[in-house]
Amino acid sequence: TALLPRLQDVRDPFVPDGPAPVLAHLEARDISAWFGDRLVLDRVSLAMPAGKITALIGPSGCGKSTFLRILNRMHELVPSAQLSGQVLLDGDNIYSPEKKLTDARRAIGMVFQKPNPFPAMSIEENVLAGLALTGTKADRDTRESLVESCLTKAGLWNEVKDRLDAPGGGLSGGQQQRLCIARSLAVKPRVLLMDEPCSALDPTSTRVIEETMIELAREVTIVIVTHNMQQAARVSDKCAFFLASQGTPGVIVEHGDTRAMFERPQDPRTDDYVNGRF
Ligand code: ADP
Ligand code: MG
């Protein structure tokens, strides 16, 4: 397969201003998931290395979103949902009885397919909304600098710095998605989960978000679900191919370095999928 040049390969070298971020390693071990009696993921294990972008690919219904929600304990919001296995954040199981749900959600942020800013709240209030949810206090100066740094990291600052009081709902779709990224960054997550973050966006906004993601991976470990093979090839370092065939639960058929997986898939089903044959 001829691939576009990876955005990853053309980024500038990282010159930190201040202490280098401590990057988080995320690992799922033996994850099985049920909705009621129905097993939808069967003993899935995957390492998502620190400071890398891991792409989860595969057809609809194979459990990618379920897997992603398990990574920050959102799966348990569904009453019928059951789960076994472990999710290790730097070696600590976020499902251990002594771990708090809010700590996991705060350390591991989520961005959804459909941009969901609070439409009536201002851009600034949107960025700070996550702080209120986690009960974090910050004085006025801290809040202002946080708003600027999060919007900058989300690639939105220049477009909105003169209208931080404008409602979030007035932004374009791509800007709203970047606002959601800024909001998720405000609580200083160590991992960012993104469930098809560009599916509702046009190609130009998609490109901007991809570039934003690659910059963010310098300080946050990223896991992205995508249907777009070109996107997986452009942004991700690692890739995992999920499949649930004929009513069987979802499993990972193959995972590894993205480039190797696209150029030399080991499993014929991966080959078929990445080359658009199903
Ligand atoms: P993907 O993101 O790969 O399209 P999902 O994780 O959304 O897959 O879904 C995996 C399977 O779990 C599907 O068969 C889906 O119908 C089922 N499922 C997802 N969410 C729920 C839910 N809240 N209740 C019951 N079944 C669900
Ligand atoms: Mg999904």
TrEMBL record:
Write the record's keywords in alphabetical order, separated by commas: ATP-binding, Nucleotide-binding, Translocase, Transport
Q: Identify the domain of life.
A: Bacteria
Q: Does the keyword Cell wall biogenesis/degradation apply?
A: no
SUPFAM superfamilies attached to this UniProt entry: P-loop containing nucleoside triphosphate hydrolases
A Pfam family (short name) is: ABC_tran
Keyword ATP-binding in annotation? yes
**What's one GO-annotated cellular component?**
membrane
A GO BP term here is: phosphate ion transmembrane transport
Q: Which Gene3D superfamilies match?
A: P-loop containing nucleotide triphosphate hydrolases (3.40.50.300)
Name this polypeptide is given: Phosphate ABC transporter ATP-binding protein
Organism field: Nocardioides marmorisolisilvae
